[in-house]
């Protein structure tokens, strides 16, 4: 796995990020996945489905929220979290992989982390997807 995106429940931000990254890096042959640190839902958020389908032409309807595991940490080349809290959580439970873990904002030189749209309206999801797309396009330069 080349890039692993991590959020809380793996229903909104990280699956949207992985789907958008799949489009941005389509011709690079990268393996991109997503996980959560506290997974309880069985499917992605309906608004997340709409937000990425509409504006970014990607489909996460087959996504199954998945709890992060030690094996994920081991095989991922880079682990991108949505917030500093996610990063702290991973470093607490998986300290051996600290060099691989970065927040998305820090990774691309931004200061605004990715807010959780969970439970919000469609406009909040669309804004989140747009921010993710912007940051992921900035990531692309590192893979050229």
Can you offer a commentary on this structure?
- The protein has 144 residues and is α/β, with parallel strands linked by helices.
- It has helices at 13-24, 46-56, 70-75, 84-93, 104-107, 122-140; strands at 3-7, 32-36, 78-81, 101-103.
- It has a single domain, classed as Rossmann fold (3-Layer(aba) Sandwich), CATH 3.40.50.
- The chain contains six helices and four strands, in the order E-H-E-H-H-E-H-E-H-H.
- A four-stranded parallel sheet has the order 2-1-3-4, sandwiched between helices.
> Quick check: average pLDDT?
94
Q: Which homologous superfamily in CATH is the superfamily?
A: Response regulator
Extended strand count: 4
CATH topology title: Rossmann fold
Counted by DSSP, the helix tally is: 6
Strand content: 5-15%
CATH class: Alpha Beta
Number of domain modules? 1
**Element-by-element helix/strand order:** EHEHHEHEHH
Shape: globular
For the largest beta-sheet, the strand count, sense and barrel status come to: 4 strands, parallel
Radius of gyration: 14 Å
Give a quick precis of the structure.
With 144 residues, this protein is an alpha/beta fold. Helices cover 43% and strands 12% of the residues. The chain has one domain (3-143): 3-Layer(aba) Sandwich (Rossmann fold), CATH 3.40.50.
